[in-house]
Specification:
With 115 residues, the chain is mostly beta strands. The termini are far apart. Strand 5 and strand 6 form a beta hairpin.
Length: 115
């Protein structure tokens, strides 16, 4: 079993920054990769960023150069640093863990960017 808890969302003005956290507990060693997804109202959930167990990072083109995914293995936490936020970044952000079975998901954290 694996548990994921996101935090760090909130309201920010355009151009501002937020840092999201995804704290993992349970079967940590089963994780292949941690991914951040986001879902805006009326839209499908989309992949934002990935960090693999080997440390490889991948970003969606829409956030490349503005968002940074990182991890702190000492506290089993993955971060998503979001800079230069724009209103189109407004969404619920979800943490996802890829394992050998069905993925695990966090509960989501709301990010709202005002213009």
């Amino acid at each position: 079993q694996l548990q994921l808890v996101e935090s760090g969302g909130g309201l920010v003005q355009a151009g501002g920054s937020l840092r999201l956290s995804c704290a993992a507990s349970g079967s940590i060693r089963s994780i292949y990769a941690i991914r951040w997804f986001r879902q805006a109202p009326g839209k499908q959930r989309g992949l934002v960023a990935t960090i693999t167990s080997g440390g490889t990072t991948v970003y969606a083109s829409s956030v490349k150069g503005r968002f940074t995914i990182s991890r702190d293995n000492a506290v089993n936490t993955v971060y998503l640093q979001m800079n230069s936020l724009q209103p189109e970044d407004t969404a619920v952000y979800y943490c996802n863990a890829q394992v050998s079975g069905p993925d695990y998901w966090g509960q989501g954290t709301q990010v709202t960017v005002s213009s």
